[in-house]
Amino acid sequence: MADPNARTDAPALHAVLAELSTEQANEKYADLDLLPTRDLVAAMNDEDAGVAPAVARAGDAIAQAVDGISERMLRGGRLLYVGAGTPGRLGVLDASEAPPTFGIEPGRILGVIAGGPTALVTAVEGAEDDEQAGLGDIAARDVGQLDTVVGISASGRTPYVLAAVAEARRRGALTVGIACNAASDLGAAADVAIDVVVGPELLTGSTRLKAGTAQKMVLNMLSTLTMVRLGKTWGNVMVDLKASNEKLVARSERTVMLATGADAATAATTLAAVGGSVKAAILVQLGGIRPAAAETLLAQHGGFLRPALEEARSNDSA
Question: Is 97 annotated as catalytic?
Answer without folding.
Answer: yes
